[in-house]
Amino acid sequence: MDFPKDFFWGGATAANQVEGAWNEDGKGDSVCDHMTGGAVDKHRYFTNKIQSDAYYPSHEGIDFYHRYKEDIALFAEMGFRMFRISINWTRIFPNGDDENPNQKGLDFYKSVFEECRKYDIEPLVTISHYELPYNLMEKYDGWTNRKCIDFYIRYCNTLFTEYKNLVKYWLTFNEINCLTMSVGDILSGGFKCEDGPAQVMGLPDTKEQLRKRYQALHHQFIASAKAVKLGHEINSEFRIGCMIAGGCVYPYNCNPDDVLLAQKDMRMNYFCGDVQVRGEYPYFTKRMFDEFGISIAIEEGDIEILKNGKVDFYSLSYYMSTCRTVDEKALKTTGNVIMGVKNPYLKASDWGWQIDPKGLRYLLNELYGRYQIPIMVVENGLGAIDKVEVDGSIHDSYRIDYLRGHIKQMKEAINDGVDLIGFTPWGCIDLVSISTGEMKKRYGFIYVDKDNAGNGTLNRSRKDSFYWYKKVIASNGQNLT
Question: Between the CA atoms of 104, 426, 383 and 434, what dihedral angle is there, to the nearest 10 degrees?
Fold first, then answer.
């Protein structure tokens, strides 16, 4: 079996990592706009006040705001059928709790979507992708406050109404399960915090911190469900999905304790998925909360809201797998939001992320077996240091090898019976790393001339992978050489 004829080949970005123009045309500042570039030990720092002597990568990004026509034309040259993009909440509602939207922000995204449509590229729009308005953190303590549900739904109503004839595919929250971990405290949850290192992005896992996370997550579940229902009412052809940070977790060996630990960690793929796809909390929630020693406030009517707001498809990011063991002496590793121990059978990227294409096939089968709805892989890729040759060429065979392996395994998953409908590899154009604020950690098919300190012309150039991916798309996944 081949890839479906209508398979969505494309690429993915996020507004805070590409747009720049952080305070132009009425845009307010987002939480990400308060995060500096990598400093000591690659840590990013969060500052409550924007400091004139600090470097904030999101303030310029790669200047997509002014160069989007050039970039979309390059995507079209590759043959994209889908472009995953996020909307910066603060470009539409600068403070998050504004009564009326910013017209210049609405006009910008309309122009972007029209540019996509000009090339028959389907926009896949992430509504919230680490761009919470800073005012909602400062004034309401972010998603811990239930008022954020109403602010989010006002935002969604504006988007759905404005773009109902331009956008069909939507994602409610990016990697919503990150809010179950400290990595999500600032970017996902928007919790109030002091100035300081933001690499771990949160306080220690005290009972109170865990309670805040899961209360904020519940509010996002309700907001997502309401958005799905609202979107379907505004345009019955809308297809609205969840987006989960996917992780494949293996037991380090056949010790039953390792097997059980790996099984428990695999639930990071299911906890949020169950709520958003099945419309209810999974069976293991009670024991999990009991072990945390927490409880959350669920208001009357919330259970019904979740049941009435099930998503139409499941989407995920996938970069790596890891192993789990009870052996405390095993060598640790980490990547994206996945933590565990090193797998001796796998190689790793320059940043230590273990490369495991077969893990993607395994995970896709597990997810489809559980949910039986269409799936998209909306993030996947290799962060690497690219060398620009004297003639300007960039020979990124390592990126081609990475993507080739994952595309082969996606095809195997389709042959297994998985209803996989799209693939939008991450950072189709070089962008700012969300975890470290770096530019040297590059994912794109398109090189952007900019360094970690923000220096460079921002000129775009095609890598070898650009021409390779063009062949892949033109052949619908048949030509991977």
Answer: 40
Vertex 380, ends 379 and 385: CA angle to 5°?
A: 120
**In this structure, are residues 429 and 62 in contact, taking their beta carbons and an 8 Å threshold?**
yes
Cβ-based neighbours of 286, under 8 Å, separated by 6 or more: none
Q: What is the 3-state secondary structure (H, E, C) of the chain?
A: CCCCCCCEEEEECCHHHHCCCCCCCCCCCEHHHHECCCCHHHCCEECCCCCCCCCCHHHCCCCHHHHHHHHHHHHHHHCCCEEEEECCHHHHCCCCCCCCCCHHHHHHHHHHHHHHHHCCCEEEEEEECCCCEHHHHHHHCHHHCCHHHHHHHHHHHHHHHHCCCCCCEEEEECCHHHHHCHHHCCCCCCCCCCCEECCCCCCCCCHHHHHHHHHHHHHHHHHHHHHHHHHHHHCCCCEEEEEEECCEEEECCCCHHHHHHHHHHHHHHCHHHHHHHHCCCCCCHHHHHHHHCCCCCCCCCHHHHHHCCCCCEEEEECCCEEEECCCCCCCEEEECCEEEECCCCCCECCCCCECCHHHHHHHHHHHHHHHCCCEEEEECCCCECCCCCCCCCCCCHHHHHHHHHHHHHHHHHHHHCCCEEEECCECCECCCCCCCCCCCCECCCEEECCCCCCCCCCCEEECHHHHHHHHHHHCCCCCCC
Q: What is the pLDDT of residue 461?
A: 98
Residues 6 or more apart in contact with residue 254 via CB below 8 angstroms: none
CA distance 372 to 445: 32
pLDDT at 349: 85
| Strand partners of residue 324 | 251
CA 275 to centroid of chain Cα atoms: 18
For the chain, list residues with pLDDT below 70.
Answer: 38-42, 199-204, 331-339
Q: Which amino acid is residue 58, in one-letter code?
A: S
Residue-range domain boundaries for the chain: 8-474
Rounded Cα distance between 296 and 453, Å, is 42
Residue 338 pLDDT: 63
Active site residue 379: yes
Q: Given 60, 115, 131, 379, which residue is catalytic? A: 379
**Residue 380 and residue 403: Cα distance in Å, rounded?**
8
Contact indicator for 50, 58 with CB cutoff of 8 Å? no
Predicted confidence at residue 337, as pLDDT, reads 58
CATH topology of domain 8-474: TIM Barrel (3.20.20)
CA distance 25 to 37: 24
From 19, 60, 122, 175, the catalytic residue: 175
Neighbours of 79 (CB within 10 A): 19
280 part of the active site: no
CA distance 30 to 13: 17
